[in-house]
Write a structure and sequence with these properties.
By secondary structure, the protein is of the alpha/beta class. The chain has a 5-stranded parallel sheet, with helices on both faces. The chain has a 4-stranded antiparallel sheet with strand order 6-7-8-9, covered by helices on one side. The protein folds into 2 domains: 3-124, Response regulator (Rossmann fold), CATH 3.40.50; 132-227, Winged helix-like DNA-binding domain superfamily/Winged helix DNA-binding domain (Arc Repressor Mutant, subunit A), CATH 1.10.10. The chain contains 8 helices and 12 strands. Strand 8 (146-149) and strand 9 (152-154) form a beta hairpin. The structure holds calcium ion (CA). The site of calcium ion has 5 residues, from loops. Residues 9-10, 52, 54-55 line the site of calcium ion.
Length: 229
């Protein structure tokens, strides 16, 4: 469930915002003080902040500025200040949106959803980039399921690819053959840990210059394997 923090000192407005947000399925916290709001926003993981400008403690501009230095979270300013200059100032400090009071609560919810969806897309596109793994001449495109060794593309079977990618994603971590078997083949699969040994051997033949002296997948005797970063 998405979590929203409302920083608003006017109780009736805070309640109105809370009601609409909760009706839309959000988990809502609200605080009435600028400093307290900032601390809460920094300490917890919210998906959206609804921020008033004129607040006791520190004002909304200051909350916005300090929060933006630390966190990448959508901020919607909802304020009675109607001056264009305030709007520009708020957006300049990193707020994502600016609404003036009196406002339509359903429009606030609609904008909140749009900003959360946009941030989610940003985050997932960053994760998408991480699907390209490059380590010392080995390049794995996890989305296209293609592998290049020192510039030359090599073909891997599905399980070889999954095993190599899993190890490369967790460099310097030692895995036992049992753990690798469960991770790649799954609990209910037919087979045993010798399958892992066979696949490691095949992967090494493709990625290593000298399989007997592996530079990527190292054997930790009596334990298992480790991908060297
Ligand atoms: Ca206020």
């Amino acid at each position: 469930m998405s979590k929203v923090l409302i920083i608003e000192d006017e109780t009736s407005i805070a309640e109105l915002e809370r009601d609409y947000m909760e009706l839309s399925g959000f988990d809502v916290d609200s605080v009435a003080d600028g400093e307290e709001g900032l601390q809460k926003a920094l300490a917890e993981d919210y998906d959206l902040i609804v921020l008033d400008l004129m607040l006791p403690g520190i004002d909304g501009f200051e909350v916005c500025r300090k929060l933006r230095e630390e966190k990448n979270v959508p901020i919607i300013i909802v304020s009675a200040k109607k001056e264009e200059i305030d709007k520009i100032h708020g957006l300049g400090l990193g707020a994502d949106d600016y609404m003036t009071k009196p406002f339509s609560p359903s429009e606030l919810v609609a904008r909140a959803k749009a900003h959360m969806a946009r941030y989610e897309r940003l985050v997932s596109s960053t994760q998408e980039e991480n699907k390209l793994i490059e380590i010392r001449g080995l390049k794995i495109d996890a989305t296209a399921r293609r592998v290049w060794i020192r510039g030359e593309e090599k073909n891997f079977t599905t399980k070889e690819f999954d095993l190599l990618t899993f190890l490369a994603r967790h460099p310097n971590h030692v895995y036992t053959k049992d753990e690798l078997f469960r991770e790649i083949w799954g609990m209910d699969s037919v087979g045993d840990i010798a399958t892992v040994t066979v696949h490691i051997k095949k992967i090494r033949e493709k990625v290593e210059i000298d399989s007997s002296n592996p530079q990527y997948i190292e054997t930790i005797w009596g334990v298992g394997y480790r991908f060297q970063a």
